[in-house]
Amino acid sequence: MIRMIKKLLLFSLALSIYSTNAFSMGAKKPTASSIKPVVSSLAKTIVNQALSNVLPLYVGNVSPLLSTVLPVLTKIAANRLEANLIGRDVVKDFGGPYLEHIKDLAERSECAEHIWKNGLKAPAGFIKGMALSYARSSCRLIKNDSTPSALVNILATAVSKKNILDGLFKYKTIFDGLGLSLNRTGIRPLQAVYLLNMGTFVSENGGAYCKGDMTGTKLSSTVLSKLLSEYKSGSALRCFADVFAEGTNCNQGTNVTAYSKECPAFGAEYAAAMLRVQSMAYKSVADQSAEIAPACDDLLKNVQDMIEQDPENACGDIF
Fold this sequence. Notes:
elongated
């Protein structure tokens, strides 16, 4: 009987794995949380049918046995079915407590209260969105050894006097004054380019992401295509559109490219890369009117400290 039960289990699991093809039919991939009730119901049906069709060949009255083994086999089948779906046709759920922690850090920061050169505070959503985008870029750097990224190699590379188009080279004296040493590849150049990114966009568009093109001119087609593919294939929540929109009126004139408006997190990371390779595309960098705000440097350092205390979970939420 035990051997027969094992065969039934293998049979039911085979059916459950085969049934994952049904999830491949839709144009939009479901999330992990959205499939749980479907998986549970499907697993129960599969196991129930398998037992009902096969057990009568061995025993007469199957009802007592069904009530005993059905819950156990169903749970095992559901776990196997869900594991088979995740990573194939189902998008991992996005979000978690660290997103909220970072937004809270940004909201309570002096950066959020900073009065910029234009005499205004940046929209609350812009500061939160840039803090989240910085956190994601930082996680890319953390993952770079195991998952090499061309984007990281641009964002976090050391400043060199050979690259006069690098915005960090143009602002190096200011960053030196903040104690951000840019002579070594790593987290310091990454923090610096996000500070410049924030100052540039506030200077040129008041921090309203939808009223200026965060992507500037074209970067390497390889970097662009990979970044676009990543954002377009993932959850729309990764774009932080709702976060960036806080305090911003996007119903008036805009010259932002369609996808940057739809996905400002993509625009933020792409603009940061542009500032490293083609910074003169931004007027406020060319004339050095873009402000570097020490208060925002403190915010990024606090975000970095949070990530480094628990990189696995923090990056799991943010990435």
